[in-house]
Design brief:
Blueprint: H1 4-9, H2 11-18, H3 27-63, H4 69-100, E1 121-126, H5 139-146, E2 149-150, H6 151-157, E3 164-165, H7 167-186, E4 191-192, E5 198-200, H8 201-207, E6 218-219, E7 225-227, H9 232-236, E8 242-245, E9 251-260, E10 279-289, H10 294-312, E11 316-320, E12 332-340, E13 345-354, H11 358-363, E14 365-368, E15 374-376, E16 378-386, H12 387-397, E17 405-406, H13 412-415, E18 419-420
Parallel strand pairs: 4-9, 8-14
Antiparallel strand pairs: 1-11, 2-3, 5-7, 6-7, 9-10, 10-16, 11-12, 12-13, 13-16, 14-15, 17-18
């Protein structure tokens, strides 16, 4: 969220920068509210001056023993009008704040301008897509043939966009989770945390999911509980309305959770397989950093996520999102896209973002600096990685001509097998 006073006083320059994201609805209303507020304050100040003058006149009349009843009525009327104007200013400020809650973060100056994903800029690639001497299959075919992925039974017990994993397919999912957590905590310096998978409205507001994106979420009827769309929400809110010790920064946390999303507006996209699910597993990386360190920490966070793909031998590319393709709360985002041979395309497997103080202001997360001054932290997060999509990447990239799938070396101690073979 934006600073209320700063947004008002720097409105034109902020609107110019925000316009790079695309149309921002309601900006005209901001101008109307600000103009009405200024009129109310001006009138109130004029009336206060009149009241002071009248009060002085009443005092002078009393000294002369003259009747002051008429002037006193005028002063009471002025006071009532001032009170009404003060209430009007409060109401206008509240509406301004409500509108402000729906305004996205300002893109960092290093973010390329653009409207769609076509304007994203590739910054690097790692690995070469494998050249197959047979036609590679998509994971939905491979998974069914190997007996490790069952979408039909998932649809029967729940509905579309859910999956059941069997046998080595289930073990591969669990192996990926443990492998990712072990690398991030033992080698990358993150502290593991296991948060609740359900969150309240205040937590979702703190990370920018509410009120704007309620339709993307699942809510538990009759409660203030929502299914977490990502571990970013509960982990970031661990420090909501707290002041952190600066000596702990940067604080790096890693968490596994199941994630739940309605995928509103995504119908027709990635409808086959498990690329876009209502429920999926993810290992999330969350950081709290001093403002002057946050962009260095973003580069490190992105590198930590990339390292998982390198250890698994999965080709990928990293792109910086343009202004029009970034998430609501982000100031800068890198997307890591892994190669999926069964779909002949790179698919996003991680988004690594710096939110600067946007989330911290909404959630009240501060730190006390060396001089004792309380300041807003910068928050960052990224998938390290999306487990289901990594599962897909492993199965599709390591498939063999005989229909089997080789388990990458890094995962073999976790899976307890070298390959997944077709059922005889």
């Amino acid at each position: 969220m934006h600073d209320f006073a700063f947004f008002r006083s720097h409105f034109d320059s902020l609107v110019e920068r925000l316009s790079l994201r695309g149309p921002i609805p309601g900006l005209d209303r901001f101008r109307e509210l600000d103009a009405a507020r200024r009129r109310a304050i001006t009138e109130s100040e004029q009336l206060k001056a009149q009241r002071n003058t009248a009060s002085n006149e009443i005092a002078a009349l009393r000294k002369q023993g003259l009747d002051t009843a008429g002037r006193q009525r005028e002063v009471r009327e002025i006071a009532n009008r001032i009170g009404a104007l003060d209430e009007e200013v409060k109401r206008l400020d509240e509406e301004f704040r409500e509108l402000l809650a729906g305004v996205p973060n300002v893109p960092h100056e290093s973010v390329p301008a653009g409207r769609t994903s076509d304007d994203n800029v590739e910054v690097r690639r790692w690995g070469q897509p494998r050249v197959f001497d047979f036609e590679p299959k998509a994971h939905w075919d491979l998974g069914a043939e190997l007996g490790i992925l069952d979408l039909e039974r998932a649809a029967k017990i729940t509905g579309a966009r859910f999956a059941v994993y069997w046998d080595l397919g289930a073990r591969l999912e669990r192996a990926l989770i443990n492998f990712m957590l072990d690398v991030h905590t033992r080698e990358h310096g993150y502290t593991e945390v296991l948060p609740p998978f359900m969150v309240n409205s205040a937590s979702l507001y703190g990370t920018g999911n509410l009120p704007k994106f309620a339709e993307d979420l699942f809510k538990c009827e009759g409660t203030d509980y929502w299914l977490a769309p990502t571990a970013e929400v509960p982990v970031t809110n661990l420090y909501r309305n707290e002041t952190m010790d600066a000596a702990r920064l940067p604080l790096r946390l890693a968490a596994f959770t199941s994630c739940f999303r309605s995928e509103a507006g995504s119908y027709g996209r990635d409808v086959r397989g498990i690329i876009r699910q209502h429920q999926f597993q993810k290992v999330e990386l969350v950081k709290f950093a001093r403002p002057e360190e946050s962009y260095d920490e973003l580069e490190k966070l992105t590198a930590d996520a990339e390292d998982i793909l390198q250890r698994l031998g999965l080709p990928y590319r990293t792109v910086v999102l343009c202004t029009g393709d970034m998430g609501f709360s982000s100031a800068k985002t890198y997307d890591i896209e892994v190669w999926m041979p069964g779909q002949n395309a790179y698919k996003e497997i991680s988004s690594c973002s710096n939110f600067e103080a946007f989330q911290a202001r909404r959630a009240g997360i501060r730190y006390r600096g060396a001089r004792g001054k309380s300041e807003l932290v910068h928050t960052l997060n990224g998938s390290g990685l999306a487990v289901g999509r990594t599962w897909v990447a492993v199965v599709e990239n390591y498939q063999q001509a005989d229909g089997s799938v080789i388990i990458p070396d890094a995962l073999r101690p976790y899976v307890g097998a070298e390959k997944i073979a077709p059922r005889s």
